[in-house]
Specification:
This protein is mainly alpha-helical. It has helices at about 10-20, 20-30, 50-55, 60-85, 95-105, 115-125.
Length: about 130
């Protein structure tokens, strides 16, 4: 049975959104009696023992941002594999990001400046952070 809310949910959500630190979030959760209420919580993804998933996240915002950009480059290189009819997990696939960048985009030694301006622009325009 769902917990009966005895407060303004909009105010609760706005308080959470305006929290800028972990401590502020905890304070809001305590104020609304959620912090200590075990019935209000369930494991992320409904998966008990999910520490490997949760713990695999970046600890700093800068590292998380960089990871997103690197992942977008990985996705572009994988898309090129598929475009060329190569399964990225197969033995025919490039063995590294560096090799894939050279094969598919002519980027030697992971140095984007080795590519002509128009080709470079075409590649980097595919990298987006929204």
């Amino acid at each position: 049975m769902a917990k009966q809310l005895n407060f303004d949910t909009k105010e609760f959500c706005l308080n959470l959104l305006q929290s800028e630190t972990e401590e502020e979030v905890i304070d809001v959760l305590k104020k609304y009696s959620y912090w200590e209420d075990r019935s209000a919580w369930k494991p992320y993804g409904d998966m008990p023992n999910n520490r490997s998933i949760v713990g695999n996240q970046q600890s700093s915002s800068v590292a998380a941002l960089v990871e997103k950009l690197v992942n977008s480059i990985d996705a572009i290189l994988m898309a090129e594999c598929y475009r060329k009819g190569v399964d990225p997990k197969s033995s025919k696939a490039p063995k590294s990001m560096r090799e894939a960048a050279e094969i598919y985009f002519g980027i030697k030694d992971s140095r984007i400046q080795t590519v002509g301006t128009s080709d470079r622009r075409e590649f980097v325009e595919r990298i987006q952070f929204i």
